[in-house]
TrEMBL record:
Family of this protein: Belongs to the TPP enzyme family.
Entry's Gene Ontology molecular function annotations: acetolactate synthase activity; flavin adenine dinucleotide binding; thiamine pyrophosphate binding
Coiled-coil features, chain-numbered ranges: none
GO biological process, one term: L-valine biosynthetic process
Record protein name field: Thiamine pyrophosphate enzyme TPP-binding domain-containing protein
Domain of life: Eukaryota
Domain Thiamine pyrophosphate enzyme TPP-binding, first and last residues per copy: 62-137
GO cellular component, as recorded: acetolactate synthase complex
């Protein structure tokens, strides 16, 4: 791989300033807003607090492919890309590669996890609500009988 990269003279550019500028403009145009529901923690609130508690430059989070973020966070720690590495993950995404907790333990890596545990493949549930009369197709992640919802351990 190294030889290929060298021979093709691939240049890695880590200058995200244009994208950051674009995002800053979008944030002004579409400021974050959400409802609070008594004891429930809206995911937007959790992410907002994460942003407040950490410095954007040093916190690495992932978007998009499920199952990607936990292993990606491991890679970030190993590559020493951030002082604080947070895997901010949905429960559906997290369980896709949950075995990597063993890697974190074995290698004693300082990966933090902010788990948005809503017991659902939430985006799928929204599509079911909108287009399929709320007919569920394995989007619920808990006990199918709903007697005892699954829980996640308190990770420290
Ligand atoms: C590897 C992969 N498989 C399927 C999808 C399609 N997909 C997008 S969001 C989603 C559900 C995500 O559930 P969760 O991680 O719990 O997040 P939530 O929407 O509940 O916040 C799925 C299945 C995807 N993005 N990546
Ligand atoms: Mg979820």
């Amino acid at each position: 791989m190294n030889k290929i990269l060298e021979s093709k003279e691939v240049r890695f550019k880590f200058d995200f300033s244009a994208r950051r500028k674009e995002l800053d403009e979008q944030k002004k145009e579409y400021p974050l807003s959400y409802k609070m529901f008594e004891d429930e923690i809206p995911p937007q609130y959790a992410i907002q607090i994460l942003n407040e508690l950490t410095d954007d430059e040093k916190t690495i989070i992932g978007y998009g492919s499920l199952g990607f973020r936990l292993p990606a966070a491991i890679g970030d720690v190993v590559a020493n890309l951030g002082d604080i590495v947070v895997d901010s993950d949905g429960d559906g995404s997290f369980i896709m590669n949950v075995q990597e907790l063993a890697t974190i333990k074995a290698e004693n890596l300082h990966v933090k996890v902010l788990l948005i545990n809503n017991q659902y493949l939430g985006m799928i549930m929204e599509l079911e609500e909108r287009y399929f009369k709320a007919n569920r197709a394995d989007s619920y992640l808990g006990d199918p009988l709903r007697k005892s919802p699954i829980g996640f351990p308190q990770l420290e």
